[in-house]
Amino acid sequence: MPQSRNSDLGDLLEAICTPYSPAQLCNEETAALDAALRDGFGEGEYNAGIPASEFTSLEPGVLNPKFYYLHDYTDIDQLADEFWDDSHPEGKPAPFKEWPFPFDQKRLRIFFEFQKKRHTEWLLSEHALRTEDLGEDVEWYIRELLSANLFQKPWYEDWACTLFDWIDDARARCSKQEFVPLGFILATSLAGKLGRLVEQYRWKFLFEPHAKRGLKLQEFASLGGHLRSQSFKSKQEHWQRQASEIWSRKPHLSKSDVARQICKLNKLEVTPKHVSRYIKRP
């Protein structure tokens, strides 16, 4: 993995200035976790990515994975064309052929080890303890304090780091010929547990606090606003109205023919093929 991808995550973590909370993820922690997960379609090494809902008719809900694109587009319609193009010059397939939720163990470990450092400092502070006073017993004290914080953030973060260590141990077993089957079974089993932990951690501490306060998840996801998304949806609705009107007068026309007329009527720079994706025969 290119060093720049790890350093950008490190920068996000070091920038966290909000005091540690055992009950929810702050905005800076959420940004760092999203960067560690790097959910989305396309090539993530180039641009920052745009949520797919902003330039397509997709309704991905609160996850709303991003599309990482290769070129600097200023036209949102051109971006939509690349999103659906399965003949990409760089060999990147269309979204229906890609899995948009990658699992980057190295980046996730960086995130959770940083969080463990934060929650350790928080736990010691909450109980008026100092590392230098505890000496070699500091790990024991932390374990005791974690046992009183089951299902809170520190508990999840500590377990994540433990699972990373166990997975590394399982991989080491695979390097010894006589332990290959055992190491493989252990590694796959532990990776599954780690995957479940990460998703529970994300949902529980990002969305659950808002759900408890009666805030719908959909409203929470839209707090930042989606002006470009709304603009594009309005454009789609306009195309559909024009398409319905054309078909009412000329029902024999194909979808492509109607799309060409819409492009001509509106002097659009997008292709008829693009418009045809967003219109339906009444």
Radius of gyration: 25 Å
* Main pleated-sheet profile: 3 strands, mixed
**Total strands:** 3
The helix/strand class is: mainly alpha
Write down the secondary-structure element order: HHEEEHHHHHHHHHHH
Overall, the morphology is elongated
Report the uncertain regions: none
Q: How many DSSP helices?
A: 13
**Helix coverage percent:** 55-70%
Order of neighbouring strands in the sheet with most strands: 1-3-2
* Strand fraction: under 5%
Q: How far apart lie the N and C ends? A: 49 Å
Oligomeric form: single chain
Return the average pLDDT rounded to an integer. 81
Explain this structure to me?
This protein is mainly α and 282 residues long. The chain has 13 helices and 3 strands, in the order H-H-E-E-E-H-H-H-H-H-H-H-H-H-H-H. The chain has helices at 3-14, 27-37, 76-84, 105-126, 131-134, 138-147, 153-174, 180-206, 208-212, 217-221, 227-249, 255-266, 272-276, and strands at 40-42, 50-51, 66-68. Strands 1-3-2 form a 3-stranded mixed beta sheet, with no helix packed on it. Helix 4 packs across helix 7. The chain is elongated, with a radius of gyration of 25 Å. The mean pLDDT is 81.
Distinctive features:
single chain; 282 residues; mainly alpha; three-stranded mixed β-sheet; 3 strands; 59% helix; elongated
Short account of what is shown:
With 282 residues, the protein is mostly helical.
Helix and strand layout, with pairings?
Layout: H1 3-14, H2 27-37, E1 40-42, E2 50-51, E3 66-68, H3 76-84, H4 105-126, H5 131-134, H6 138-147, H7 153-174, H8 180-206, H9 208-212, H10 217-221, H11 227-249, H12 255-266, H13 272-276
Parallel strand pairs: 1-3
Antiparallel strand pairs: 2-3
Helix pairs in contact: 1-2, 1-4, 2-4, 4-7, 7-8
